Amino acid sequence: MAKQKKNGGSSSRPAAIDPALAARICWYHFREGQTQQEVADRVGLNRATVNRVINDARREGVVRVTLDLPLAPCLEAENALRETFGLRDAVVVPAPADEDDVRRVVGLAAGQYLSGVLAPDAFLGLGWGATIHAAGFSLIPRDGAANTVVSLSGGLSQSGAINPYDNAAAFARVLGAGCYYMTAPMIAETATARATFAESEPVRRIYDIAGRCQAALISAVDLSAKTKMVDYGVLTRDQVGDLKRAGAVGNICDYFIDADGRMIDHEINARTLSVPFETLRRIPNVILAAGGTFKADIVRAALAAGLANTLITDEKCAAVLLRG
Questions:
Q1: Are the C-beta atoms of residues 75 and 24 closer than 8 Å to each other?
Q2: Which residues of the chain have pLDDT under 70?
Q3: Of the candidates 210, 214, 212, the residue with the CA atom closest to the CA atom of residue 284
Q4: Which of 91, 65, 66 is nearest to 77 (CA)?
């Protein structure tokens, strides 16, 4: 940050680097063997800043034979996830002591990550849920950007604190962005009603805008005992059991899929109006934020189906995914 002139001259102080980013810079350079310029290009900094971080790490004794950093296991898992699943990127955060906090922890990491990769004029497709809700709290506010947020989900018949409309509105406020919502239910009453809604101009408009997104942030819904679908009023306990018997391991963007990532043949899928998978797959950077061992099956299924190319998760979920 520039200082006021003193004695006719000026000086500047290098901006502080986030410790997690410094850890990644050291990992990429010392463990992956990338040049300082390659690291700079990868993390979006100039070479001089990368050089300073590396020199500081050497001077402070952080870099020895191994990286003396608490994030080293997470960084190793990130690299393994990228290679195993062919991901564009992966971020692994330390698992919270209480797994019930994992949605918040992963969500906060997702908001921070999105702030760094979302172009100032990009269209952002947005999923919903507790993880997405938490991401909004770490999203860095923008002034003068020209982003657009579009909700990828239909609406809920009963609205609690966490719902597609409020998630999208919160992101739009922080980004200073325009916002589009689907003025139709997430799940129509019948398949015939779904077809009618899908042909309506408001819904077709949302599908069209979603197809113009350069990035999307979504989460994954499990069908374990920890599922939030009943709490949110989307499903009954009986429906959860029925979906599991039909082979579902969870849902992505409100569509239920099996362990291989295939959409199951079920009447709920036939009634769902959220943005279809073919549109999601055309978005260049789909960021899937989901953590907890209870979500490992649906995360693996989503990656197998090619529904995301960036993963943000916690180290326990990552370990399950990497065990195969």
A1: yes
A2: 1-15, 31-32, 62-70, 159
A3: 214
A4: 91
Query: In this structure, what token pair is assigned to residue 36?
Result: 């300082």
Helix H or strand E segment including 72:
helix 72-85
**Residue 255 falls inside a structural domain:** yes
DSSP one-letter string for 120-140: TT-EEEE--SHHHHHHHHHPP
pLDDT at 63 (0 to 100): 64
The token duo for 29 is 């350079």
Determine the Cα–Cα distance for residues 29 and 40; give it in Å rounded to an integer. Answer: 10
Residue 246 and residue 286 in one domain: yes
Shared domain for 31 and 166, answered yes or no, is no
Within a domain: 260: yes
pLDDT tens figures, 198-222: 999 999 999 999 999 999 999 999 9
User: Cα–Cα distance between 217 and 202 in angstroms, integer?
Assistant: 22
Question: CA torsion 95→96→99→100, rounded to 10°?
Answer: -140
Q: What is the pLDDT of residue 69?
A: 55
- CA pair distance 222, 131, nearest whole angstrom: 12
Going by C-alpha positions, the residue among 314, 308, 310 that lies closest to residue 291 is: 314
Task: Name the 3-class secondary structure at 313.
Answer: strand
> Can you give the pTM of this predicted structure?
0.80
